[in-house]
Amino acid sequence: MRLLVAPILSLGLAVGIGGCAGPLPAPDPQMAWVDLRADGIDTFMSDRLDGKRTPDGRYFQVSPGAHELEARYEFEISSGGSGDFGDTQYLRCTMVIRYDDFQPGRRYLFHARSLGFTPQGWLRDEQNEVLARAEAEHCY
User: Fold this and answer.
1) 3-state SS assignment for residue 26
2) Sheet hosting strand 130-133, strand order edge to edge
3) What's the pTM value of the predicted model, to 2 decimals?
4) What is the dihedral of CA 117, 120, 98, 36, to 10 degrees?
5) pLDDT digits (tens, 9 = 90+) for 1-26
């Protein structure tokens, strides 16, 4: 009996973790799709679309027209020369994009990166052209 416990627990853990990162849904051709990307090991996840929580943090799918996208961005910052070396600290910000012309069937990229303590973000189209710049809000 004892030999079965470890494999069953491992299987249960794998199934539980795998369920969090299931396959993405197929994009609806009547909607615009927005992928999210952050540099390095930073965490960048969708949070709100037009003030309402998003059901999946990996993307936005929006109707044509104007929308406000909010995403949570967490990135590592250097503790500098003072204090303990090697301390890892993180800064968390809400990145907000307002864009008036999402088109159905198009793919967009909401990209975030940090420059020191300063978060930066852009909305780009399929040709990698910048359509809008993100505003960083509520950093802590």
Assistant:
1) coil
2) 59-62, 32-38, 107-115, 118-124, 130-133
3) 0.79
4) -110
5) 444 443 333 333 333 334 456 899 99
